[in-house]
Design brief:
Length: 234
Amino acid sequence: MAAKPQTVLVVEDEASIASFVAAYLKNAGYDVRTTASGVEALKLVESEKPALVVLDLMLPDIDGVEVCKRIRETRDLPVLMLTARDEDVDKIIGLEVGADDYMTKPFNPRELVARVKSILRRAAPERRERDSETIDHGDLHIDAGRREVKVGDEEVQLAPKEFDLLWELLDHRGLVLTRDQLLERVWGYTFAGDTRTVDVHVRQLRRKLGDASPIVTVWGVGYKVAPARDSVNA
C-alpha cells in the first residue's frame, strides 16, 4: 500500500503565489492545504496536522512571526518563512521561535520544493538517534534529548536551527566546516544554497551565548569551534 502523502500547509495571502506554490508542491507528491489567514492557519495546524508550514511573514490579520510563535508553543513543526524583503531575514531568524528556513520573494518554486524536501528529511525520526547524547565545552552544556543549552547553570533559549548548528559545530570540534557543508548537514541541502542563512544563525548564536560562544570564523572558508577555556565554575 502506498504511503500517505505528507501534508504541507501554505499560508499566503497573495493568491497568485499561493496557487503556484501549491501546484508545485502537489506535483512533488504532497497533499496541500492553503489559507490567506493566520488565524485560520492555526486552526488548520490543529485539524490537519501538517508535516510542514510554508508561512508568509506579512498576513492580513496576525503576522507570520506571531503565527510561528503560537505554533511553537504546542508543537515542534517545521516552518519555512516567506518574506518580501531581505531586511526581514534577521527579524525572522533572530526571534526565539526561529523559522527553520526562509526564502525571499521572488523565488524559484523548484527551489522552494527542494527546501521543503530538505527540511522534512532533516525532521525525520532518524535524527532522534542522538537523543541521549550531551556535549560539554567550557561553560557550555548541550543536551540533545532535552534540546537544552546551558551556560553554567543558566539556560539559553535557542531557535531549532540555532541548536542544530551549534551541535554540528561542537560535534566536529577540531575541524573547519564550510558554509556549504553546514547547509548540507544542518539544513539538508544537497544543492548550492544561500550561505547567508548560516551567517545569520552564527550571528544570533554569538549574541545569545555571549562570551561562552565557541564559534570562530575562518575567513573565506567557514566556521570552527575554538578550544574550550577553563570553566569559571571549575
